[in-house]
Each structure stands twice: as C-alpha cells, then as structure tokens.
Amino acid sequence: MRYLYFQIEQKLLRMRWLLPVPTILFISYIVVGGVLVRARNYDLSSNSWDVLFSVFGNGNLVFFVLNPLYLYLVSDMFLESGIGQLALLRVGSRRRWWLSKTLILGLAVLCYAGLNVGIVAMVATFVLPWENSWSQAVLQYPQEFNLNPDALIISSASAARWLLLLLSLGWFGMGLLVMCFTLLSNHHLVGFIAGVIANFSGLVALRANLPLPYAYLSIHQHLLFNLHSFGNVTNQYPSLPTSIYYWLLWCSILLIIGFKIAHKQDFIHREQ
Questions:
Q1: Are the CB atoms for 56 and 235 separated by under 8 Å?
Q2: Within a 10 A sphere around the Cβ of 203, how many other Cβ atoms?
Q3: What is the rounded CA–CA span in Å between residue 31 and residue 269?
C-alpha cells in the first residue's frame, strides 16, 4: 500500500492530468449548443442525459479525442525513474510491483472517466434539467444523440451506467496494452504508439463499416454503447454482456502477458 501511495504521488498527481479539463470543457460547450439547437428545431424538450450520450456515445469524439488523450496520460506510468527504482528495491517483489501498476492503472481509468463525466454533467446542468426518463427529443430522434433506438427500452440512468462501464473497461484494456509494449521495449513511446495503432484500427473499422461478424473482433464494436442489440433478436450487434466478456478476456490475456514480461524485466539500470 505504501508503494501504491508512492505511485499515486509520482504518476497521478501531476500537472498533465489537468489536460482533460479544458478539452472536455470545450467539447461540452460545443455539444450542449448542438443539443439546444436540435431541441429548438424539433420543438421538443431535452435534458442533461442527451448531452452525456452525445459526448460519450460519439465515435469520432471517443476515437479522435478521448482515447488518444487517455493514452498520452498513461503512456509513461509503467517505467521507473531513478527514485522509482529505489522504491522498487524496497518492495522486493515483482508480483507486488505488477499488482501496484495494475491498481494505479485502474485508478487512472476511474480518475479519467470521473473527471470527464463530472465536467460534462456540470456544464449540462447549467442549461438542461436532469430527469428520470428519456427526453422527448431522444424518443423521437435517438440517432441524433448517438443512441440505438433499441436502447430506449432501458432507463436513461441504466444506459449511462452501461456506457461508462464499456468505456472504462475499454480504457483499462488499452492501458494494459500500452503497459505490455512499454515493458517489452523499455520505452514509453513504443507503448503509446501501440495504443494509438489499436485505437485507430478501431476507428478504421468503424468508418469502413466492417461487416459482422468480423466487426466483433474490433474494439469499436465493444467500446461504443450504441453498437449493441439490447435484446433485439433480429439485430446482429452483440449484446452488452458479450462486450463485457470481450473486455474481460482482453484484460485477462494482457494481465498474464504483462506479468510474464515483468517477471523477466531488468528494472534496475546502471548508469555510466
């Protein structure tokens, strides 16, 4: 636990973690304006849930902005500085080191998701109410808010929980991918590039409209909330539990691979 606290001070409590604040503030401002314009044009009411799904259900925003920013923030969390190497000697266990890195990555995902969602919710609250049901605008034009019409069978709050769970698991899995390549190459830039390649491969699959069932292998199919079936047997999209199993399998494989790499890693480097 002491080493985990040390990792939090070294890796999370840094100025770079303020980067999402202006980014998501700007995005929220633009999206709120778009939601208000659509509601006025359709002469239908909107609420704050519309803003939330318009931001985190938008594939372009997720793959062009949120994912790359997250990958940048976590890319250098897995290499030890000089003081980090000294702390590692005190830990004296590769298993504990790997566990601490996994936990710090999980905390980074929670901080990133919580910061983004909190700012979007704060901005949306200034102009739109929070309600216990879908807005009139969403019920009439769900695609305008990045929602699958089948998703309206569940409540807006439940849909938001599923959306954030998919994003959080996806970000954790992508972070593990960055961790494995960083440890393998001993350079954080290689890990960052590996994460970016995985991210934009999902974007390419999304833009190319990769046919099913091949799309099941791509991360975009399991990262975006609106690309799911929601109990509709005629819909070929995967169910929400299927995507959860996909990310759990992804994370389990990378956890095992990463531990194998860490077990052989030379953490202590002698400098001439």
A1: no
A2: 18
A3: 48
Half-sphere exposure of 29 toward its Cβ, with a 13 Å CA cutoff?
A: 6
Q: Give the side-chain half-sphere CA count within 13 A for 163.
A: 25
Torsion of CA 164, 170, 175, 181, to 10 degrees: -170
Nearest Cα residue to 6 out of 76, 91, 70: 91
Q: How far is CA 2 from CA 89, 91, 98, 177, in A?
A: 13, 9, 14, 26
pLDDT tens digits, one per residue of 25-69: 999 999 999 999 998 888 889 999 999 999 999 999 999 999 999
d(CA 146, CA 135): 14
Q: DSSP H helical segments within the chain, as ranges?
A: 2-7, 20-42, 48-56, 59-61, 67-74, 82-91, 94-127, 136-140, 156-185, 188-207, 220-223, 240-263
User: Tokens at residue 165, please?
Assistant: 């769970």
The pTM of this model reads 0.90
